[in-house]
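Appendix C reproduces, verbatim, an entry submitted by the partner laboratory led by Prof. M.T., so that reviewers can inspect both the input and the predicted structure.
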Amino acid sequence: ELAAIVFSVGLRPCTGAILVLVLAHALGLRFAAWAAVLAMSVGTAITVSALALMSVYARRTTLRLAERWPSEHRNLPVVLDAIAFCGGVAIVLLGVSLIRATTAATGHPLLARKHQPGQDQRLGARTRVRQPAFHQRKVCACL
C-alpha cells in the first residue's frame, strides 16, 4: 500500500520539468533539458527524503520524551498543541513577509497604484523630471 502511494505521487508530472522540456525542445537543446530535469528530480528527491526522515525521527524522539514525562503533568497535550499552533503562525507570518517583500520589490501589476508623471514606479517616491539640456538654455540664433 505504501509503495502504491509513493508510485501514485510520482505519476503526477512536474510542471517545471514540462516547461523546461518544452522550452528546450523549441531551442533545440534536448540533452540540456534532460540534464536539467534530472537535476531537478534528484534535488527534489533529496529534499523531500531529508524532510521526511527529520519528521519521522522528530516524532519518535518526541514520543520517547513524552513517555518519560512524569504522569502528574497531564497538560502535556495542551503544551504540544500550543507549540504546533505557534509553528503554524510562524509559517504564515513568514509567507506573508515573503509575499510583501516580493510585491514591494517588483511592483505586482494587480496590486500597484496607477503611475503618475514624475513618480518612480519602483520606489514610489517623487522624483524630479529632468528636461534635456537644450530646453534649459536659450540659444540665440541671431549672433
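The chain has five helices and no strands. Additional entries are available on request from the coordinating office.
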